[in-house]
Design brief:
By secondary structure, the chain is α/β, with parallel strands linked by helices. It has 17 helices and 19 strands.
């Protein structure tokens, strides 16, 4: 990468990147902040301008085409203020009163979404990405739920929770627990290997929960909460978070009492959940303000929020909480979670990044936004929870413009309709760099484009991806970014294969009974072949796979989508299955017994092949979990 430094009116100029081509031309003199052009080979031409503009030159040395963006200083300062150093972690205080801790519960609350079961390996990979993203606290799971959950939390604590990032940051690793002693023991034993271990314990405090779910009096609830915190202190846990479940519908006076008592017992963080998404932003902000004013000892702990999205207000409520003194915000990647989901990490982080300095009295976080896109992609692929196209920040339409008026504005200046660039969150906007991927493309071209798209692919992974790329390129003219992403997603974001699909052949039509012949390689290395009749070609393939694998499941969901337009488009198939094995039943944090669901996807130009491979991938995820239980 070549970098040019140009100064005008004291403002600094950013570098140009080889991803974007530069056009020849002369930068016009301007008054104010406009979109201009630059020129130069093997060097930059000094920009001319007025009003102390900041200029971003983008282009590559020795190329034709590109753009030079003149960014208004006010917009630049709002979009990318210099990020102060992250304060040293101390459980019960933050040295900088403007710093907001980000508590991610994707691996705990997020996994409670129906069909969002994750394997141990998937959880560890997501935790690594969250650490890279700069998350302060990772709630890695509910260790008491199952042996598999305990193993996952412990592994994350022992690995991700001990390995610093380049800036020295190590996330806190947290385990969830009810106030039951066995829960507390499991959580502490799972997380204590981390550099910064935390246990998060909770009990309901609303009248409706105490009466109908707990069947406890207020005194009994307070006693349970205090005893849990004291027990954790006795185990050696010095970082204790307490949540009064359904605080949004609890009587404020009871909250003052129970929170004051757990502070005396040793709690270091008080989390205020709007468990049912009932509160409005003004209402929730006022609750936080009342707690700060009325809870004895609250000045010596961190106040936190956990907002559900039942009325679509989780992000607004979280930000309202921060503006009223909360300094920890709980959220999930893509906003996944129970029912309508949780506050979305990417929405909270970008809102504070873009508006925190001016509109929120200088609030900031330690999130590194360039890793948002990859975190979103990883969670979506592993969990099987697709991101809706219009989802803020990470939806596929978040940076798309179809209206003619909008397109006209974007061509003149991207700032007309975009308050942030896709590059800010690590998403590379498709650029024609003169390279068209096809069947004659080599490994270097594929690896280069993947790197530009944000994928850091090792040689072994590249070998497999390139093999799939060549197979598709032989059938499809011109491989687009969407095609490449579908191929790489299936390889990088799918579990290790227990069974491998070798061949799938179907015969169907108006004159034939749909018949499938499937050949697979098992964990013993032996090949197995079955032929069977079904109601259709996909049903026949699934029945043949079931006959080979002999692990019965219920198919809960099946969908096929074309990645791009055209008859030769790659098909991406997603399936969700539910195991019938009793060993995969588990108890959720809310006390309900559930069966694990497993979601997987696959891609191919042949719909039957992609469907069968997706089904096999889902079965492999289930078998990997069963193997860990054994």
């Amino acid at each position: 990468m070549r970098t040019a430094k140009v100064t005008k009116g004291g403002s600094d100029v950013v570098s140009w990147s080889s991803r974007v081509r530069r056009s020849r031309g002369t930068l016009p003199t301007f008054s104010g902040h406009v979109l201009g052009r630059g020129e130069g080979r093997n060097g930059g031409k000094e920009a001319r301008g007025g009003c102390g503009a900041s200029i971003l030159i983008q282009g590559s040395s020795g190329t034709k085409g590109g753009r030079l963006v003149v960014v208004p200083r006010a917009l630049r300062d709002r979009a990318a203020p210099p990020r102060p150093k992250r304060p040293k972690y101390v459980p019960s205080k933050i040295d900088d009163p403007n710093y907001v801790r980000i508590f991610d519960t994707t691996l705990r609350d997020g996994e409670q979404s129906p069909g969002a079961t994750l394997t141990i390996d998937e959880k560890v990979q997501i935790a690594r990405q969250l650490s890279k993203l700069g998350v302060d606290i990772i709630e890695a799971g509910f260790p008491r739920a199952s042996p598999d959950d305990f193993k996952a939390v412990k592994l994350i604590a022992d690995t991700v929770g001990t390995q610093p990032q380049d800036d020295g940051h190590i996330p806190v690793i947290c385990g969830l627990s009810r106030t039951i002693q066995a829960d507390l023991d499991a959580s502490w034993n799972a997380v204590k290997g981390a550099a910064f271990p935390r246990v998060h314990t909770f009990i309901a405090t609303s009248d409706i929960h105490m009466e109908h779910k707990l069947r406890m009096t207020e005194d009994e609830v307070v006693e349970n909460a205090v005893n849990a915190v004291k027990y954790l202190k006795g185990l050696g846990c010095d970082d204790i978070e307490f949540s009064p479940e359904d605080a949004g519908r609890s009587r404020p006076e009871f909250l003052y009492r129970i929170l004051g008592e757990v502070i005396k017992a040793g709690a270091t963080t008080l989390n205020i959940p709007d468990t049912t998404g009932w509160n409005l932003p003004l209402e929730f902000g006022e609750l936080i303000a009342k707690l700060r004013a009325n809870v004895e000892g609250i000045e010596g702990v961190i106040l936190s929020t956990h907002c559900q999205n039942d009325l679509g207000l989780s992000t607004a409520n979280s930000l309202s909480g921060a503006q009223n003194g909360a300094r920890q915000l709980e959220c999930t990647i893509n906003g996944i979670g129970e029912r309508a989901g949780n506050a979305s990490l990417e929405e909270i982080a970008m809102a504070i990044m873009l508006r925190g300095q001016q509109e929120m009295d200088g609030l900031y976080t330690g999130i590194v936004p360039q890793h948002i896109h990859m975190a979103s992609k990883m969670v979506s692929e592993y969990s099987g929870m697709m991101v809706q196209p219009h989802k803020a920040i990470v939806g596929m339409n978040a940076f798309a413009h179809e209206s003619g008026i909008h397109q006209d504005g974007m061509l003149k200046s991207k700032e007309t309709y975009e308050i942030m660039s896709p590059e800010t969150i690590g998403l590379s906007r498709t650029v024609d760099a003169g390279i068209v991927l096809g069947k004659h493309s080599g490994r270097h071209a594929v690896k280069t484009r993947l790197a530009e798209m944000g994928y850091d692919v090792g040689n072994d992974d590249l070998d497999e991806i390139f093999k799939r790329f060549k197979a598709v390129a032989d059938k499809k003219k011109g491989i687009k970014d969407e095609d490449l992403e579908a191929l790489v997603s299936e390889h990088l974001f799918q579990s290790t294969s227990v069974w491998e699909l070798l061949e799938a052949q179907v015969v169907c039509g108006t004159m034939e009974m749909p018949t499938a012949t499937v050949k697979m390689r098992g964990p013993d290395g032996m090949e197995h072949v079955e032929s069977i009749v079904g109601k259709g070609p996909v049903d026949a393939c699934y029945k043949a796979v079931d006959k080979i694998v002999k692990s019965p499941v219920n198919l809960l969901d099946y969908s096929v989508n074309a990645v791009t337009e055209g008859i030769d488009a790659i098909a991406v198939t997603r399936v969700c299955v539910e195991s019938t094995d009793e060993r995969l039943a588990y108890e959720s944090a809310s006390g309900l017994t559930r069966r694990r669901n497993f979601t997987a996807q696959a891609s191919d130009t042949d719909i039957v092949v992609s469907s069968t491979r997706a089904y096999v991938n889902a079965l492999c995820k289930m078998l990997m979990v069963l193997r860990n239980i054994q």
